[in-house]
Design a protein that fits this description.
The protein is of the alpha+beta class. The protein is 52% helix and 24% strand.
Length: 337
């Protein structure tokens, strides 16, 4: 009663091996393309969330270390709710297995900076330190171990309190009082975190006008830089997706040529029974749409699994950021397909 459906469905089932390979080819090609979108979108979202967890919305780097007594102007900034001092500098971390250069940063305990901890916790007192996970791996240490921290000619024994994730290698965090002691800057600061009611460019310009201020960056600017990096990567993704989708078109064209040639006798019989060439072309198009639709249905779980594998490898080997695939990355690339 419905030849426009029955005939294409009969064509799909007539040669299950060819139909199955066609669906598998389309599914894998489109799945790989979708996986690229999932991976980039998920990584970008994860980085944005990691920055959003911090309470600061402006960061200031001083051109030289500044005495804390000279920072009274920070209390007079309009619309600023809270400020926190930061002390950072280069050190060498030495374990029984290796020695590695690092950049140690001191933050206020329970303050505006919240690193993504993988093991342990940010130390609340004493000479505890947390390390970027790859730095800890190169040193061969874990939470509870002891390191030798070397700052110029000063040596300190410090306790590893945990590890954190960061796309920037060679970082270490500790309470600001401990870092000030290690770097011989107990009464100085190298930077500032600001929680402003409105982190406007005008406020950033006002801060830049203060003495010894090197750079002022607003969190939206930082997130914008992350998105720019992601967009650059996306240009490569679009190119790769275009190649994979072109492969899908080539597969469909090859299957179409094979199908028409293989069923020439069948189409001759249908013409004898009164079916017009336009009707036969519609049968072929509906059959291809069935195969393509089944391929796209296969592509969604395939793309998710491929993206999960890619993110696990890339996140662990390169970015050192735990990234999980997001459903948003599955849904929006599928719309134009």
């Amino acid at each position: 009663h419905y030849p426009q459906i029955a005939m294409p469905l009969h064509g799909v089932l007539r040669n299950p091996w060819v139909s199955g390979m066609t669906v598998a080819g389309i599914g894998l090609a489109v799945g790989v393309s979708i996986a690229y979108f999932i991976a980039i979108d998920s990584f970008n979202s994860t980085l944005a969330r990691s920055f959003a967890a911090d309470a600061w919305n402006m960061a200031v780097d001083f051109s030289v270390p500044v005495w804390r007594r000279d920072l009274g102007w920070t209390q007079r900034l309009p619309g600023v709710r809270r400020t926190e001092l930061v002390v950072q500098g280069p050190v060498t971390l030495q374990s029984d297995r290796a020695a590695q250069p690092a950049r140690v940063t001191g933050y206020a305990v329970g303050g505006m900076r919240h690193p993504t901890m993988l093991t342990g916790a940010f130390p609340r007192y004493g000479d505890g330190i947390v390390l970027q996970s790859k730095l800890a791996a190169r040193l061969g240490v874990a939470a509870g171990d002891t390191l030798r921290l070397i700052s110029e000619d000063r040596h300190f024994d410090v306790r590893v309190a945990g590890t954190f994730a960061s796309p920037v290698p060679g970082l270490a965090y500790a309470p600001i009082t401990a870092v000030g002691k290690w770097l011989a800057m107990p009464d100085q600061a190298t930077g500032l975190l600001i929680d402003a009611a409105r982190p406007t460019p005008a406020l950033a310009d006002a801060i830049k006008g203060q003495p010894r201020v090197g750079e002022v960056i607003r969190k939206p600017q930082l997130l914008g830089r992350v998105r720019e990096i992601a967009d650059e990567a996306m240009s490569v993704v679009y190119l790769a997706a275009a190649f994979t989708l072109t492969a899908v078109v080539i597969i469909l064209m090859a299957i179409g040529v094979f199908t028409v040639g293989d069923r020439a006798a069948t189409y001759t019989t249908l013409r004898t029974l009164g079916y017009r060439d336009g009707t036969l072309r519609r049968f072929i198009m509906v059959e291809f749409c069935m195969l393509a639709g089944l391929g796209v249905l296969l592509a969604l779980p395939a793309g998710w699994l491929i993206a999960d594998y890619l993110l696990g490898k890339v996140g662990a080997a390169w970015f050192d950021v735990p990234v999980r695939p997001a459903w948003r990355g599955v849904l929006w690339p599928g719309v134009p397909l």
